[in-house]
Here is the input.
Amino acid sequence: MTDLIHGVYTEGEKIADTKAPKVPVAGMWEKRKMDAALVNPANRRKLSVIIVGTGLAGGAAAATLGEAGYHVKSFCYQDSPRRAHSIAAQGGINAAKNYKEDGDSVYRLFYDTVKGGDYRSRETNVYRLAEVSANIIDQCVAQGVPFAREYGGLLDNRSFGGVQVSRTFYARGQTGQQLLIGAYQALERQVAAGTVEMFTRHEMLELIVEDGRARGIIARDLVTGEIQTHLADAVVLASGGYGNVFFLSTNAMGSNVTANWRAHRKGAYFGNPCYTQIHPTCIPVSGDHQSKLTLMSESLRNDGRIWVPKKREDCEKDPRTIPEADRDYYLERIYPAFGNLVPRDIASRQAKNMCDEGRGVGPMVGDFRRGVYLDFADAIKRLGQKAVEEKYGNLFDMYARITGENPYETPMRIYPAVHYTMGGLWVDYDLQSTIPGLFVTGEANFSDHGANRLGASALMQGLADGYFVLPNTIRDYLAKGPFPKVSEDAPAVVEARTAVEERTKRLLAIKGERSVDSFHKELGNIMWEYCGMERTEAGLLKAIDLIRGLRAEFWRNVKILGSADTLNQSLEKAGRVADFLELGELMCIDALHRAESCGGHFRAESQTEDGEALRHDDQFLYVAAWEFGDGESDPNQPGSTMGAPVLHKEDLVYEAIELKQRSYK
Amino acid sequence: MATSTKSDPKNMDLTLRIWRQDGPSDRGHLQTYEVSDISPDMSFLEMLDVLNEQLNAKGEEPIAFDSDCREGICGMCGLMISGHAHGPEKTTTCQLHMRSFKDGDTITVEPWRADAFPIIKDLVVDRSSFDRIIQAGGFISVNTGSAPEANAAPVPKQKADRAFQSAECIGCGACVAACPNASAMLFMGAKVTHLGELPQGQPERWARVVSMVSQHDHEGFGGCTNTGACSVACPKGIPQDVISTLNKDLRTAMRQGG
Ligand SMILES: Cc1cc2nc3c(=O)[nH]c(=O)nc-3n(C[C@H](O)[C@H](O)[C@H](O)COP(=O)(O)OP(=O)(O)OC[C@H]3O[C@@H](n4cnc5c(N)ncnc54)[C@H](O)[C@@H]3O)c2cc1C
Ligand code: SF4
Ligand code: FES
Here is the structure.
């Protein structure tokens, strides 16, 4: 074994090849599609694909592969595929349609996304994303997705943070809902056609790897508790993001890392786990009872103006009585070119800075007031209340319902919250992980957003992956099949299944003192404090220690009532939290090793004189892909730890875009 | 009611009567619980989280209820709260806040009740019948990759707006729970109107409505007698006129011999 670096990880070989065709980006995707082997329609029915997740990434892929005639098994933990968390996306979806004739193009969308990601994403994948973006809009409109339209009946667009063109398509504040319903309906059509078998209220708890290939999953039927084996020729994970490692986030209550983590433990590398997006416009925390945070779409920054009082004494005053001269519109002041539309990471960090300076507003939470104003008074004056209502009505209503305040009359209060995870399982150009036959799409992979994601580009990625990319690349893999039949009593299958059964038994047998939620909250506090908006070496080392201690306590002292053979929501949560307790450590290790600031990852040791993030391209121009390190003892046993993970670097090469320090000033 | 010391004078002590049912074959019963010091800023489900933590600490199995997004959009949550689907406000259960109640209130919490929504456990029901109605025709048949340019068919804003409004349905099932006949006509009307208002939805319009209605009846949902209770309970304000649209489309389809 090589020496431990920082005492917590080792370094292995570099990743040599991402399998992107060796041609300029502009012709690359065409070439890949041409080169991908074809599967004869008559053979498709004999090929089966498991897809975990029914959000935009999974739902779109299941529908498309079903239409093509493959045998698809689709899984989600909710009671219907329509409830995947993609449903909650509000603001919109980007596409390089250039309907506004404002100079948009595939190249500009590509450039904006790479720059927005702070030059930590892979050029080849992002170019393809921009390239297929226009097809997504066509497909969705054909499915009946009711995008916003102008009076002439044509599609409307708006602009979103971090860009200077209008390329975002939207359906009031419910874009994700409408896109997901489109994918869901296409999926249900295939269920009716018999090509897709749907498993709702089923949770994937283990990956089956046989003869070096992903060949199936172990899932628990959440209603009956039955542990089931599902086998296939290939497995796709489209299981979403892992922001819930912070306990409080804008993710759904059930969002989890279990599918990804189980695959990671079986050999899939985890890419850039520490890259987390903290969204600037969320409704502030109101108390200890808080179970989740609610996002206010970033589209609000188009018309709302963000400010805090110039003087601390004014922080308690009714904001309407504070005169213009005493307000600090700090984003407009610091970033005159982009103003309120700077990328999310910058808007979030500046909000934190204002509150740390003691100029935050709203109730005291701990030692600080954690809130800044988002003010629509000017917009209402300029456009009229009716126009503002048209555009943002449902968001304003939601704000009023949650806070009990009327945002048409007093400015809203907002504060950053964990929102999206750019990190995820490492995939190559084909979206295939380091385990052959295991593909990863949507938020669950790491591929397109570098260290920071631009608004309206996750929906774009989910649908690009699901409708257009994966169906082409997985075809090339499946063309090598059908693979030898795996039987349910093959050693690898039995081992995976036994592991799940044992783990379930072990969790229920602990019968300790503390609830699952109490562990989850404590983990969340550690992550927010030390691996949140600002990270330091000392803090991260401390967090790693704390998490190890907490994990050991969890396996000794968690209290889960009820049994394994019925609907048992505490048991479900316990499994998810157990995996978060391992992921959290890896995130801290990744954040510790990356001693630079980039995008959402801000290391206090690496900043410019005026407090902006400072990248170190000479040392860190790579993707950190982590291999799971087996510990000496069983990591699930009390007191033990995971083994030290192994870092594999994938060097990032910029050929189409010139590397620059990001500036929005 | 036990009196408690409140950490804030605005906080509340409440009596809850909650439906407990071990499984589909258990008869089930209402059980009484007391909760204290509940903040008006909590959501209704956060109040149940607090109760569940208490039960867990006492060694009593927590109450099972569904929720996921807790933002009023996924449609996973849904409780009958003192006889009102999603409670006293026009919103989802997860977006209902405790400021809608007052100190000393007694609140009854039950699952959706309808033959087509069998109870799984406590407050959790099986709504897969909704998915099957969509499978019967709630879609536009267009395979990936075969779509024309998006702006090729302009949609008049008025029609686009009505399609959008109908498409806001979150599939929660409150309309069924509120209906004395347990009919799902509002849910179905919303889908038929969404797709029927759009040019893309025309080719399958008549077949769609016939097939969906037949599935609806097959699932055991009741007939519509125009009580309007559905629309009142709907957290997304789906108007009752989508049912008229559905009936009109159904009549046209029948005339065409569909
Ligand atoms: C509040 C909010 C607003 C947003 N707004 C925007 C926006 O305006 N524009 C934009 O581009 N992006 C937005 N995003 C981001 C975007 O919505 C998500 O990144 C994207 O929808 C993720 O899609 P997905 O298909 O990868 O995963 P999801 O939609 O999260 O789906 C995950 C699926 O996996 C299933 N699953 C997970 N684990 C398991 C398991 N172990 N077993 C079985 N099934 C499992 C779930 O049931 C679900 O079906 C927003 C995100 C949030 C939270
Ligand atoms: S019509 Fe309204 S009440 Fe009925 S399922 Fe849809 S959103 Fe829920
Ligand atoms: S939990 Fe999603 S709508 Fe209530």
In short: The pocket of FE2/S2 (inorganic) cluster (ligand 3) is lined by residues B 67-70, 72-77, 92-94 (CB under 6 Å). Chain B touches chain A through 78 residues (CB under 8 Å).
